[in-house]
Amino acid sequence: MNLRLVPASSSLSGHSPARHPAAGQLTPARADDQAQLADLLSRSARGQEDAFAELYDATSAAVYGLVLRVLRAPDLAAEVTQEVYLEVWRQSARYDPDRGRVRAWISTLAHRRAVDRVRATVRQTARDDRSAQLDVERPAADDVWSQVDRRLDAERVHRALAHLTVFQREAITLAYFGGYTYSQVADLLSLPLGTVKTRIRDGLIRLRDALGVEA
Amino acid sequence: MHSLGGLYATSALEPDARDAFEAHLDTCDTCRIEVCSFQETTGQLGVLTETPAPPALRSAVLSAIREIRPLAPSAAAEHLVPFARPTSRRRARLLMVAAAATLLAAVGLGGWAVDVASRLHESQTAVAAQVGVLAAPDARVYHVRLPDGATASYLVSRSSDRAAFAATVLADPGAGRTYQLWTVRRSVHGAETFVPDATFGKRATGLVWLHTDVTNAAAIGITVEPAGGSRHPTMTPFAVQQLS
Fold first, then answer.
1. pTM score > 0.80 for this model?
2. Do A52 and B62 touch (CB under 8 A)?
3. What is the ipTM of this complex?
4. Fewest CB within 10 A of the end CB: N or C in chain B?
């Protein structure tokens, strides 16, 4: 198990990941969070703007942070974040709890929008020197994981990430936070496409299991 | 195909592969469940990058939703991807019209109008309008770029107060959604007002004519809106062209 990306917090350093078997279970706090957000969403669907404002307050840091991470431009990130929330408002009646938690639903939408935007933007700029451009923009995996605050949720996710190999983390980082397609990830890492596909999928399976997400 | 769930959940698939996999998801419970669990997983990665949004964004969002009516619940099965995106993922298969100017040069003015008419089965009046715009001394063709990188064109004559959007094949704007053209009025103080104009779907192959005031418009743009169109844009307009 690679140690480089394990959280620096010394309180955790004495534990192996295996000693946190309950790390990902739906704690009462997280169940409450889902129930509360689902309620805010259904009230939004009935046109209650104050409920939507609460939903925004509870989720906007996650949405904006993710979009900003992918786009790397605060003005673009604000624009895309606004589009995301207008869609959430419009589609609020169509959220289906069987398909996942509210936070996952919103994150999926935000991530897709951010990635679509970054690819559209890249397409509009010169792509002649694609490899050089990718090198410049290539995010450091450590950079992403090191900006973690000390909140329990983040520590939980960190502990789960420790279950991944460094190669799996790297591939997931480039795809999810870098917004690269998997052929670009393969270029960046000088790996065959199939290897990248396997690393991302196996990494997500490990992460999912460590987080206690039910498959 | 079964091994693509991870790439799909990290939005790492190219548009064509994304299309193909979404079609597969409709028929494969195993993959659908796996993708769901992966989306739940990546959703939790968000705690690592949380950043307070700019305070101005909150008021912008809350003020914008007052103009938008939430959709009714849909009985139709929704895709895992929660929203229809304004630009189709089928972009790679799309063929936007080559610039109108190119057509003009290639087939000549009359030939182009006839070609448009035969493709669209438009009335003689519409053909006459096209010829009128094209013949106007200030007729201009503006090339614009769509969000998916494809190009399209506006044909504009401010002196004859006519303008059209040109595309041969368009991406599906999504179920219950439509494209909408807007003209932009700019006050002397620089304040911009978006005036709703024609709506059109993916089958609007050919010219889409604007019906609002073009002579005094500062710009033209496009959005994707709920079916029937909106009175105010619900998203940032794309393919915005300043008129000069």
1. no
2. yes
3. 0.77
4. C
